[in-house]
Amino acid sequence: MGDMAFPDGLRPDGLPAALSDPERLAAVRATGLLDTGPEDPFDDLARLAAAVTGCRRALITLVHERRSFWKSRIGVDAADAAGRQNPVRESFCYFLGGAPFVTEDAAADPRTSSHPSVRPMKIGAWAGYPLLTPAGQVLGSLCVIDENPHPWQPQELAMLAAMARAASNEINLRTSLTAARAAVAAAETALATSTALARSLQDSLLPPSCGRCRGCKPRRPTCPRPAAPPWPATSTTCSTPGARGGAP
């Protein structure tokens, strides 16, 4: 890594400590893009990046703690997800931090000349811009690779910056939608639980039905059938002497 200094220092393995930042790693996982297949929105941006710079290779990469996963790769053969990644030590992405990283001649640049991928991957020049969350966490990069030294033009770099922002926006929109759906699902579950609890509590407070007649509705406290009077029935025959046949 030459004479480069990293604000958060280095890990014991010599790579930037920021790679292992828990908040950054959580943000990378929250994208839901690790180990997923190619998708047109990202492939289109990578293809455009290659076209405007004249480079044969362009990558959109998510950088985890130990590996760099190529969500999109133009000019790099890989049949499956397992082949669309490399150890983070072999990636240029860790140079980024939160700012662009550009080298016009990787073999001659003291920052990159000793990097293990310069010769095996035929990296003559490299230009990359970070993919950022709204909070500024670095998710990865959009980068282009030229096999030969490349004097990057201002308009090329401006286009790469714009495409990196577009890729970041796509990722952040998806992450927000996923979080919103999860919040709605959680709210619906909580509402169903609350409704069931309220119904159970209401049922436990109501008195039981009388169970003695068909006319009694459930949970009514008493039967509506009228009760018998508490006094004996009055006789219809007069008991007054002489009342049956006239005067005595």
What does this structure look like?
The chain is an alpha+beta fold and 248 residues long. The protein has a domain at 17-181: GAF domain (Beta-Lactamase, 2-Layer Sandwich), CATH 3.30.450.40. Helix content is 30%, strand content 15%. It has 3 helices and 6 strands. It has helices at residues 22-30, 40-53, 154-205, and strands at 57-63, 67-74, 85-87, 101-103, 125-132, 138-146. The chain has a 6-stranded antiparallel beta sheet with strand order 3-2-1-6-5-4. α2 (40-53) packs antiparallel against α3. The termini are far apart. Residues 243-248 have low confidence and may be disordered.
Task: Provide key terms for this protein.
alpha+beta, elongated, 30% helix, Beta-Lactamase, 6-stranded antiparallel β-sheet, 248 residues, disordered C terminus, single chain
Summed up:
The protein has helices at residues 22-30, 40-53, 154-205; strands at 57-63, 67-74, 85-87, 101-103, 125-132, 138-146. It is of the alpha+beta class and 248 residues long.
Point out poorly predicted stretches: 243-248
The H-level CATH homologous superfamily of the domain at 17-181, spelled out, is GAF domain
The CATH topology of the domain at 17-181 comes to Beta-Lactamase
Return the structural class.
alpha+beta
Estimated radius of gyration? 39 Å
**What is the highest CATH level, the class of the domain at 17-181?**
Alpha Beta
Strands of the largest sheet, in order across it?
3-2-1-6-5-4
Q: Per the principal axes of the C-alpha atoms, what is the gross shape?
A: elongated
Largest sheet: 6 strands, antiparallel
Sketch the topology as an H/E string, one letter per element.
HHEEEEEEH
Instruction: Give the integer mean of the pLDDT values.
Output: 87
Please report the distance between the alpha carbons of the first and last residues.
Answer: 141 Å
Count of DSSP strands: 6
Percent of residues in beta strands: 15-25%
Oligomer: single chain
Number of alpha- plus pi-helical segments: 3
**Share in helix:** 25-40%
